[in-house]
Description:
Elements: H1 7-14, E1 18-26, E2 29-32, E3 35-39, H2 45-55, H3 68-82, E4 93-98, H4 103-112, H5 123-126, H6 133-142, E5 148-152, H7 158-170, E6 177-185, E7 188-197, E8 202-203, H8 206-212
Parallel strand pairs: 4-5, 4-6
Antiparallel strand pairs: 1-2, 1-7, 1-8, 2-3, 6-7
Amino acid sequence: MEVTPPFFLKNALQMKNNIIHYCNIKNNEVYLDGKKLYTGAEEDFLSFIKGVYKSFGLDYPKFYKMDTLCKLAIASSSILLNGINKEIDPNMAILLSNRSACIDVDIKHQESISQGEGSYASPANFVYTLPNIALGEISIKYKLRSENSFFIFEGFNPEFLIEYGNSLTQLGKSSSVLCGWVEVIENEYNAFMFIIKPEKGIELTKENLEKLI
Length: 213
């Protein structure tokens, strides 16, 4: 027997998500919706991302105590969310991914406990030895009370982000989704954050995401 879905769910399933806004941070540059907003001259990642933080006035004091992955995630998400000129919906979900988890700080953590007798784990490192800490920092900063997940893939996986993101809005789990790829190892980094929502925007397809990243 065919079962008719509830009215609200039937409407949700008919709605189609699009890419509403997106932000890129890579190669010493910051872009918002394809427009270059900042270029840094720094050769190392930490100096560059601190320059981004100051230039955009991101105003999050905990930034300086974060590991590199959280710094990149907070910077890219803040530039994106601050740039949409709308009140942030606390029901926005977060769906992030990368290839190396938090290996950049994991290496520093291992070094700090492998220096022989008397060595100890530095709180500045081990506090951040989980990639989902980045999700928590974004949620705290923007008071998001939503579903969030961090996935590890061999490379950028647009099909997964599209499928998972669509399910969150279509099933009424969230009104919109902050998706992205946030990867950093030493001075190699790439952040691509984008918001999907059932509103007018760039069509949410694998091909479009691969072009935008």
